[in-house]
Amino acid sequence: MSLDNDQSNEAPDDLTPVTGAATDVSPLGREGAKPSHELTADEDTDVVNWNRIAASDEFKGLIKAKLKFIVPATVFFVVYYFALPVLVGYAPDLMKRRVFGVVNVAYLFALSQFFMAWIIALLYVRAAARHDRIARSIADRHERRAEGGR
Amino acid sequence: MSTPLLMFLGFVAVTLGITYWAARRTSGANAYFAANRKITGWQNGLAVAGDYMSAASFLGIAGLIAFNGYDGFMYSVGFLVAYLTVLLIVAEPLRNAGKYTMADVLAYRLSPRPVRSMASLSTLTVSTFYMIAQMVGAGALVNLLLPGVGFSTAVVGVGVLMIIYVVFGGMLATTWVQIIKAILLMSGTLLLSLLVLGHFGFSFGNFFDAISHVTYHDKTGAEVTKNFLQPGHYYFGANKPYGVIDLISLCMALVFGTAGLPHILVRFYTVPDAQTARKSVVWAMFLIGAFYIMTTFLGFGAATIVGRDAIGANNNMSAPLLAKFLGGDIFFAFISAIAFATILAVVAGLTISASTSFAHDFWTNVIHKGTERKPGEEVRVARVTACVVGIVSILLAILLGQSINVAFLVGLAFAVAASANLPVIVLSLFWKRFNTKGAVAGLATGLASSIILILISPSIMTVDPPGVVGAARHLIQRPPIFPLENPGILSIPLGFLGAVIGTLLGREPEAEAKFAELSVRANTGLGAEK
Known about the structure:
The complex is a heterodimer of chains A (150) and B (530). Chain A is mainly alpha-helical and 150 residues long. Helices cover 69% and strands 3% of the residues of chain A. Chain A has helices at 3-9, 41-47, 50-55, 57-90, 92-96, 105-148; strands spanning 98-100, 103-104. Chain A has a two-stranded antiparallel sheet. In chain A, a hairpin with a 2-residue loop joins strand 1 and strand 2. Chain A is rod-shaped and about 100 Å long. Chain B contains 20 helices and 2 strands. Chains A and B meet through helix 3, helix 4, helix 5, strand 2 and helix 6 of A and helix 5, helix 9, helix 10, helix 12 and helix 20 of B.
């Protein structure tokens, strides 16, 4: 007769007393969600219902608003920038034309690229401030839900 | 002791002080890899500028403009406009969805091990090419300044300093070295520009008049006078049938490459949130833009005041020689010390991004499947890697010596970054269907096509006339197979194509399911690393 057999054949009843000190650990088999301090790292990421946020009108509006600035801005700067090497290469006479003294179109066009980049950057900062407000409201709503969600 | 050496030692002393200060504040992975994410917007803007304006910018562009006029200025334009790609597309989503490296964003919804392995390989490739270029530049500069000190000694010196910054001071020390260097470089360039304008009686008219007829002796010894404001002295000639295409190809590599440079991307993890990342890009754009506009004075100043004949064969020395001509030996020493500082700050940034990628992507996430076996292991591995990266680059730089062209290596780094890294970053953020096969295929085709096309390009394959020796001699003495010096125009579309075809080969439901999560994280900052 070995100890192993004893244990496997007839497991004794759980002798843990039913009554005890109050605990903040949720009882097994509970219905509601775990309180946030009890979640393991893996479970915690699931608390955010990413799909629900992604499907919300507010989030779709945010993406739309962002793309409404980013797509035209990107197309514009790419076209404006590549116009420089293309015109330099294929329209040399236009580029050689002098504007102020000896300063020609080619140099002024190249210089204008710097101001183009700065202006788009500043316009983007202004637009992004609006996007930030939408993003923050989505994040805030979610965080309130996460804290209240037991 | 000579003045340049004293000034350089002054910079070294200050930066070592910073490293000591930073080392006492650096404990834990967030501190080591991301400076605790507490760098402010303007600080990171300066640091990005300091990380970006390398020896290729300060020495290289000034030299290209001094020798080729307008065509060299095209680099200045591209290096700045590239930041619009960073600002509009990459910086904020990266900060929101990643932790330490570029690969974090890719691994978010794709299978981590293959994606991180490839991304780490491409990060190490880009960083190594970039780094060797900087080390070789440092060696050449020392040769000019301190004739007694050999090339190898200079390379070892730079390498050891960069290892000390990165191993002991981590990202915090690297950041402050870059900030100080950016301030030094901006003020030195401003001073030099004012001196150039002063030389022409502060008259833009006189300055541009001088640029419109630059006289020098060409290879045959005949005197030529050229209008340096006119495009085409480098790219359009009888011997360059594909000049225009090559110029467009270069522009593509520049404007799409910056957003794939790992050492620039990791800087956005050092700030508290995406808003600060955005602010720092805008700060950097104003600093970098002001600097590149001033290359007009540096480069054209060297062409008109010093003259191509006096600069000699090595056009990288145009800016320091201009300083010597206008401000005497002390100013020459100051500008040269700044050039050293420039190189040191950039190599430190490259080393930390390469070692972070190896430790975080490859060691922890690929080999050990995402968990550290002991606390602090990742940082320890990164420190060891920084030593290894440093030693390998020292050896490679000494081995290749001055026989390799610096600008070519930097161009390769930009082309690889644009062809391999940018397509997969963009597609993983914007295309739901994008999957692991696509990422691996995109990284692999981008990496392979850009490197192979450069190997068979005129930069490597050209039949030199007899008598060309040393640095000017090409590695393979055969007619080039691929006619362009820069592969961007072909390799960037190939990178995208590889990624798209790879994706279409199969479906990956897990990756598509996680797109919503990545998109919400990237766009709202929910759950971003703090």
